[in-house]
Write a structure and sequence with these properties.
Elements lengths: L3 H16 L2 H19 L5 H5 L2 H24 L1 H7 L1 H7 L4 H19 L4 H19 L7 H21 L4 H24 L1 H6 L5 H4 L2 H24 L7 H20 L3 H21 L7 H6 L2
Length: 302
Amino acid sequence: MFSRKNKLTLLKLLSLFSIVRGYNILIIVLAQYLTSIFILAPHIPLRKVLFDANLFVIVLASAGVIAAGYVINSFYDREKDLINRPQKTMLDRLVSQQTKLTGYFILNFLSVILASYVSFKAVLFFSLYVFGIWFYSHKLKKMPFIGNFVASTLSITPFFAVFIYYKNFDEVIFVHATFLFLMLVMREMVKDLGNLRGDVAQNYKTIPIIYGELTSKRLISLLIVASCIPIYLLLTRYEVGYMFLYFYVCLGLLFLFLIALWVSKGKSHYFWLHNILKLIIVSGVFSIVLIDVHMILDRMLW
């Protein structure tokens, strides 16, 4: 049996994991490694990629900055989240605002120190990343269009870290990145539709608040159409192996998403739409291995 003190400690640990979105960070770490293995450095032996100290440090520093970003978002959005996500917020409130701030500075400091192991350019990159997340949380997230665009850009930034490290400028990488970016922008816009009550209460100037839900749905529909362009290119112009199965499934899911978007009216509907986009993004991470299913066996022998 756990004592009352042990239960409280366990709840605080769960609260901390909830604040830093530990599950999201694990997905991003996995995505960075899979992207490195299958897309950015397919010519490098698997062991060298997996045991590359510089890559490990870059991934670890990315995780630290992302965790700090979630902490500062939780700090600024405390009142809004109490309206939009009351159950999660009650758990998160077990960690005090002062502890959040302390954790935020420690995580960012350690991340930049880790980056110094790689190079001064890495220190500069992660310092700018830290500033970008803070500036977004403090100022930009309340602005229509700009907030959505910057949030999506910050979400994709960890992949630019490994992209710059490997200096791989193949065109196909930018097409993959464009598809992911469009999914992230849609997710941010759907999130705004679901968070309408809290955003109004905290004077956020999001697209559905300023221009209405109808305009938001029209813009999201345009993004769905735009996302079909990188899918078409990846299916017809580039070699993606068995990952073509993933993109065909995406087309089906996006078609269902489009229909559901126009019949959605409440927070619960937008929650399911958000989950469809999350499924597309997360399954895309695991689908990277389909680019070349024989590559792992071959490269393990190198």
